[in-house]
Amino acid sequence: MDILIVVIALLSLLVSYAVFQSNDKPKIIVYIEPHYGKESFVKLIIENIGKSTAFDVNFHSDRCIPFKAFGLNKLQNPPQYFTSGLFVHGIKTFTPKQKYIFDWGQLSGLKEALDNEPLYITATYQYKYPLNLWKSKIKDESIVNINELDHLPMSQGGTDKLLKDIHNALDKINSTIQKNRVC
Hints:
This protein is α+β, with helices and mostly antiparallel strands. The protein contains five helices and nine strands; from the N terminus they run αβββββαββαββαα.
């Protein structure tokens, strides 16, 4: 009976440690989102959404990662690819909630540069689990699919028209105030 109690206690300790360990590690993701401040621009974001620091982070992709892929209807220039920076040299220390944001390009230019195919990016890094004597190598995989942004407001632009409409409305309000001025 005493042995059974000891075994149960050890098992619950191991389960608790495993849960603690999985909640405490880094988690590096690569994703895209529209840049609502710039017509049809797309931001490429790398973020550590985990609760711990990742060390010696390196990125690998199924193909070259385009960079500055600008063009409203098609690429303006031949595709360029990252040849320096963190996708080539990695990140020595990546703290929790830290992120890197790139103006990656415009929707149509990126679609052409990526051949309308998803981009698979793997982040590999070192992490020392609590109570471990050595660091473990961890892999986090992200899928960046430019086609997910189709038909969002940014894909069609429209910020210039919206700003002009706001400007015209403010001009009308200003004119009304000037006409109704008593002095």
